Amino acid sequence: MKDVFIKVQPSEPELVSNFFLGTILVILLVTVIDIVVHDGYVLDDISDCYPGNNSDRCLKLYDTHNCDIGNQMCLGNDYWSLLTIIVQVVGISLMIGRIVVGKLGGSKTNPMLFVVGGMWYLSAVILFYFGWLDLLYYVLRGLSVDSMLPWLDGIGLFSLIQGFGVSSSVDSSDLYLLNFIGVLIYGILWGFMVHHHRQKTWKKLGLV
Predict the structure, then answer these.
(1) Does residue 54 lie in a domain region?
(2) Which residues have a Cβ under 8 Å from the Cβ of 205 and sit 6 or more positions away?
(3) Does residue 149 belong to any structural domain of this protein?
């Protein structure tokens, strides 16, 4: 395992360590944060301030979050933006950390050092952007995924696949499709990198 982190190269051991430490662990931790913070705080505000509830509390929340009165989903925008920032910070930290560990282990400063570092960043954020947070939110709470997910309408990559399912709104089949595409992209990228590492393509190109 020590050699895996010292030798910065797109090898099978690098892929395995990245998958468990840089991908699965990250999305699980972010999902746990989402469950604790969203369900414990944000969800109450969104649920209480339904259209027509113009209580002083809700009006203050609308003003604080710069939301139109009655737009209850807007009340969660600041939280979701913060969650995105957290994922980005984790991804960048893993990228920098991978490069630093490689250098401390004696890796040469070559293009592949930064390519592999970039792969750690990408791996940390890809499942988040492809809806795995939304799926695991249900799974970790022991719930079945709702058939309709209208609160995801127009959000991120959901805007590109919205309507592929049984409704013009985001539904569970759209979520599963986006999940699959994310895993597929992850697999193709790492498979491409590992395959050409085994073929010594990167060495022939002078990248390592």
Answers:
(1) no
(2) none
(3) yes
Please state whether the predicted TM-score (pTM) of the whole model is above 0.90. no
Nearest Cα to 189, choosing from 134, 121, 102? 121
Q: State how many domains the chain has.
A: 1
DSSP characters over 42-68: IHHHHHHS-TT---HHHHHHHHHTT--
Across 198-207, average pLDDT: 78
Q: What is the pLDDT of residues 130-153, one digit of tens each?
A: 999 999 999 999 999 999 998 899
Give the position of tokens 């920098």: 96
Residue 2: both structure tokens together: 């020590």
Structure tokens at 56: 């002083």
The residue range of the domain holding 153 is: 2-29+73-204
Q: Is residue 187 included in any domain, yes or no?
A: yes
Contact 170, 150 (CB under 8 A): yes
Output the CA torsion 20→23→29→34 (10° steps): -150
Within a domain: 62:
no
Q: 75: exposed, middle or buried (C-beta count within 10 Å: 0-12, 13-18, 19+)? A: buried
User: How many whole angstroms separate alpha carbon 113 and alpha carbon 115?
Assistant: 6
Q: Are 152 and 134 in contact (CB under 8 A)?
A: yes
Q: Retrieve residue 5's tokens.
A: 């982190």
pLDDT digit string (tens) for 76-109?
999 999 999 999 999 999 999 999 988 888 888 8
Q: How confident is the model at residue 68 (pLDDT cuts 50, 70, 90)?
A: very high
